Amino acid sequence: MAQPFLKKDDDRDDEEYSPFLGIEKGAVLQDARVFNDPQLDARRCSQVITKLLYLLNQGETFTKIEATEVFFSVTKLFQSKDIGLRRMVYLMIKELSPCADEVIIVTSSLMKDMNSRTDMYRANAIRVLCRITDGTLLTQIERYLKQAIVDKNPVVASAALVSGIHLLQTNPEIVKRWSNEVQEAVQSRAALVQFHALALLHQIRQNDRLAVSKLVTSLTKGTVRSPLAQCLLIRYTSQVIRESGVNTQSGDRPFYDYLEGCLRHKAEMVIFEAARAITELSGVTTRELTPAITVLQLFLSSSKPVLRFAAVRTLNKVAMSHPMAVTNCNIDMESLISDQNRSIATLAITTLLKTGNESSVDRLMKQITNFMSDIADEFKIVVVEAIRSLCLKFPLKYRSLMNFLSNILREEGGFEYKKAIVDSIVILIRDIPDAKESGLLHLCEFIEDCEFTYLSTQILHFLGNEGPKTSDPSKYIRYIYNRVILENATVRASAVSTLAKFGAMIDSLKPRIFILLRRCLFDNDDEVRDRATLYLNTLGGDGSVVETDKDVKEFLFGSLDIPLTNMETSLKNYIQNPSEEPFEINSVPREVKSQPLAEKKAPGKKPTGLGTPLTGPTPVGDTYERLLSSIPEFASFGKLFKSSGPVELTEAETEYAVNVIKHIFDRHVVFQYNCSNTIPEQLLENVFVIVDASEAEEFSEVGSKPLKTLPYDTPGQTFVAFEKPEGFPSVGKFSNVLRFAVKEVDPSTGEAEDDGVEDEYQLEDFEVVAADYMVKVGVSNFRNAWESMGPDFERIDEYGLGPRESLAESVNAVISLLGMQPCEGTEVVPSNSRSHSCLLSGVYIGNVKVLVRLSFGIDASKEVAMKLAVRSEDENVSDAIHVIVAGG
Amino acid sequence: MATFLSREVCPTIKNILLLDSEGKRVAVKYYSNDWPTNSAKLAFEKSVFTKTQKTNARTEEIAMLENNIIVYRFVQDLHFFVTGGDDENELILATVLHGFFDAVTLILRNNVEQREALENLDLILLCLDEIVDGGMILETDGSIIAGKAATNSNMDDGASLSEQTISQALATAREHLTRSLLS
Fold it and tell me: Where is the Coatomer gamma subunit appendage Ig-like subdomain domain (chain A) (predicted)?
């Protein structure tokens, strides 16, 4: 090859040689002038285009002017007959994605190419034209495209079909007219044409269930040549199966035979697609699963990593819902632990941990120990989490699992990894009483040599709560006091607190604890000294050993059940307005402000072993509360209990956009209507909402606050307040009309006319529902919270929910009906599962904590049954929850 | 960039990358809007490169990254990657990688290395254009892809594949194929 791109380049450094060395945008754009030469040099032009494409590919961008200039000069190249150059021109036009008025320039050239005798031109011209075209042009070329779809040249047909798939997004009504041609192309002998035609045909008909079902019925009987098309057909088939359900008489599933037949296809791609489809069937039976598992098992010992990965990943998913079905593969899976590809090894291990039985645990742990040293932290965390759930499954095996965890705790690792291990140990200590002593000692050893302040303090805190309850608490003192001697101030301070807890709980240790605490009085850090002084005083460190006061215990062990941000704002207010009164902690509002749903939560949120008891959504700031208390009419309503998210009362893009936020107080509700005016020529004055509460009998209107002016594009609020029975979750429906005076505005001067016209605007209705009286407040450890709430006010009942779309849909419906916070990720329903438990927590009006346990079951006819167990601090509230569910 | 096909039912390719031994771009093509800016793309390429760097991917390998599945293969100083969503059939992605790899091998006449690739960048870009169109798989057979890209290049002065080299190349491809079937 005759060094096509090498310019007069005297750089002889061969190591760094690149044909594009020192390339520069300005120079290349200069070079692009050759496109305008009357005598075109095709090769030179190709080279310049390649350079332009190289620049774009490296992330260089052209300004609008540069792009337009290049585009116009590139269009000149259609004069050249050179095939190679023409290909590069096509590529360049696609990369430049010209705007509509530029497209017109090339349309005729491309249309000429579309009808050329060279198939390559035709195929490419179709793809380029469809990429850059808009609806109007499309009607002109539609005729050619329809012909192209049934063209005997497969490249041309595929080009037209794939373009059709893209165009369906923007111009569905046009593409839908091509059905007949596409249908014909599905029968094509060319493998890929069949694939593309099938994809397009399905997309045209995807909203017509019957048509899709017919398509699947006819094709599953016929021959589909291309493996890719076969994969598509498998996907469509599972879709049809999903929608049709099991035949209740025979228990057979339609089309299952087809899927099973695909397991014997010659292409691995198809076999795998079918196996995966079978494992994902909803409510799949063991009999149906077996053949799929068998082929996946064969893949496990394939020489190709991709195949092993695909198989083990699918089996891993199956293991979540059908662990028994996967146990046959355990031997093959075990050999994958040493797989070169670490993703495969990790998937194999976590699958084994899910399917393993009690007797295989020890052997498994031995294999994993060798494996742990050479994988990355992210994989280790996955393994640690799998081991934790295994240990909870087989509590008798805690010894070897706990040993494993403590061993890996001693090894090198980053913060996230160590945190995962510590969290796991903490959970095991909590849930397996036998594991407590050894677990605590492992943690003690860990903090002897722990580089993470966060983990040290968390462990010390945990130790303070759990240590005094063990058989020999004194043995922990040494570890704790060592922290006071050796660590940084933060850890020292929390070690002091931990010592105090031991002192408070165990009288016999008191004298020795006092000695240690007194030493801390000479610490060089303020916080450490302050804490030592405080604890010495509260525990009666004047030498006399007395039983610790109940209040002191409450102070030391009780959790601060006030959101920290509320505490922070209250304290700030207190400092700003100095007063003689001491700060009163009871004046801090306790409610957690609900946050707009837009904020995404981390998917699959795990229960954190350590950490604060409250994990509700972080308050968005008390803007609403401040706003409402600044309005004199509403200031007497007391503490705001909850504010709902905005409910839209108008369609999008109407003249006036209004949404409402429901503010719930103990005896009142306030509706905050957020209005905005989207018409520049109008100024609205004296804006208010007339609320008809005839369908909300328990509510009576007590006041409103109109909005004086509502100029264009400046949102404003108007309020209406209602009274309702105290502490009672009244519900009702409200219909609304927006009233205002319109004044014309001269857009040029922005001045409004003097006289306005009264007008009104109908808004949509909204309801106050039971969930509005519930604040979402999460708990980190549901089980503990449930136990400590006790069964005094427990109410259990069963409900039939009737036929539902799916289990997940029923779970979500109940959660949103109750408006409670799902805990420990239990709102996620694994696909295929037939039963599900969901844990919810919240605070009901009147500041009553409520915990709910939901158990769902679904049968073959999609009838859903639900058991609802409620525990709360008030039996009326427990009953009220049942009323909500019964009424929903 | 084309509008990304967000239809789970159809196999979809998110991007195809050809990087050098330092993780720099030789040629890349993105079909999805998951990485809207050039810096997002570069960051993705960097993380893919670092994650796979240490593996010996003389045959097709596979990894997961940020909810994407990446199949890859390295030859000399060239790193080939194909990315799809995490619910994509891994074997379909591998087929696309296979097609891309074979096509590039044919175009570079078995001389698969960075310098050769840059010298034939026009053909490699044409290859990418022939494999996937806006995320939709167009063709997966390496020799057909290479054939399409090469018929368009300048044949007259032997600057690229001559007839003879094509048949040679096809023979090599056949040989490759037999070997991979036997293995």
Answer: 623-768
